[in-house]
Amino acid sequence: MSFGDQNNPYGAPQGGAPGYAQQPYGAYPQAAPGGYPAAPYAPMTMPGITKAARTLLYVVAAIHVLIGGFCMWGLAKFTEATDKVEPGKVVTDANGNEVNVDKFIDAGKGGLAFFATLAIVFALLGILLAVRYGKGGNGVRVGTIVYASFAIISGLITVVLLGLGLLTLIMAILIIVFAAKQASAQWFRRPRH
């Protein structure tokens, strides 16, 4: 069967190519034999793995509330103990150098206050991400992965606090794995109306 001049700039003859139905002018082209690939799957309910990631986010946030409370308790005890030290006291260290005690007291209080504040802010961020799982887009999933990455660092730092660091570390790794799964990606990329 001949299709006419191969150098014809106007394409194939009006009859169309064999195996394809002739479309009326202006009609939406129909699928080729074999069809187009199916539309991506859009889950209507949150997948179990995504629910697990959200639950772990809440638990990691609760652990950070505990860490923040522990730091505040430590700050209160430290302040109570250092209030007995006379202001401007100077002591001699092992090398014979004079050291102002007030500087160390202030540094200790500042460090504990910083870590308490950081832990509470981190807990609030985790709760915010977990709450957004129902209606949030892909940014919530990416934010969860970034949050869990920082939670791994937090877990490594707080490993000495009654095993909470190890628990945080394990859960943060699981959050990253669960949020990176295809089912979670499909949940956060689903169409919202």
What would you say about this model in short?
The chain has a domain at 48-85 and 100-188. Helices cover 57% and strands 3% of the residues.
Description of the structure:
Keywords: Membrane, Transmembrane, Transmembrane helix. The chain crosses the membrane at residues 56-76, 112-133, 145-178. This protein is mostly helical and 193 residues long. The protein has a domain at 48-85 and 100-188. Helices cover 57% and strands 3% of the residues. The longest helix has 35 residues, at 48-82. The protein is elongated, with a radius of gyration of 31 Å. The two termini are 51 Å apart.
Look at the structure and give the mean pLDDT: 83
| Low-confidence segments | none
Rounded to an integer, what's the Rg over CA atoms?
31 Å
Q: Helical percent range?
A: 55-70%
Number of DSSP helices?
5
Side by side, the strands of the main sheet go 1-2
- The total beta strand count reads 2
Major sheet details = 2 strands, antiparallel
Order of helices and strands: HEEHHHH
End-to-end CA span: 51 Å
Keywords: Membrane, Transmembrane, Transmembrane helix
Transmembrane segments: 56-76, 112-133, 145-178
Q: What are the defining features of this structure?
A:
193 residues, mainly alpha, two-stranded antiparallel sheet, 2 strands
Q: Helix and strand layout, with pairings?
A:
Blueprint: H1 48-82, E1 90-92, E2 98-100, H2 101-131, H3 138-157, H4 164-180, H5 182-188
Antiparallel strand pairs: 1-2
Helix pairs in contact: 1-2, 1-4, 2-3, 3-4
